[in-house]
Amino acid sequence: MKVISYKFFFFSILLFSCQDKCDYYRTYTKQEPIYSSMEVLRDSVKFSESREINNPGKLNYKEGYLFISETTKGIHVINNKNINNPINIGFIVLPGNYDIATKGDYLYADSYLDLVVFDISDINSIKEVNRLQGSFENYYSNQGLLNDNGIIIGYNEEVIEEYIENYNCDTYNPFD
Question: Which SS3 state, helix, strand or coil, does residue 16 take?
Fold first, then answer.
């Protein structure tokens, strides 16, 4: 009799412990790309007032002046002739900038797809003198950052939290 009781007990546990449905929470980040046209980005290039350095990138030194890339934003121009008292002269607004170089009186910088050349002979009046459009187009196309909508310049992020009732537990996938 005890054996039958044990069998009945275990069978009932197995029968009632199986659950086809369950509830769970999931949290994920949804990223929507922000697009811009190259025309808008090209028109935004200018030499403006100095600003605080927040996200420095590459640095270049030329005849007492520091050129510091502010990643994706532009280039800081700093008079460093007196190393004890550097003076932030101005900022070149150059969207998509990561890399810089100088040679002679020229500053070379990338701006998303383009290679941009600035005349720095008059440090207080820096001007764009040339632009080689599409120089880096292959890179952005291959990375999936350039398409018919324009070029991806950032992402809007949204954290989404979901509560799902009566989810099929047998097919639970945390990446679903």
Answer: helix
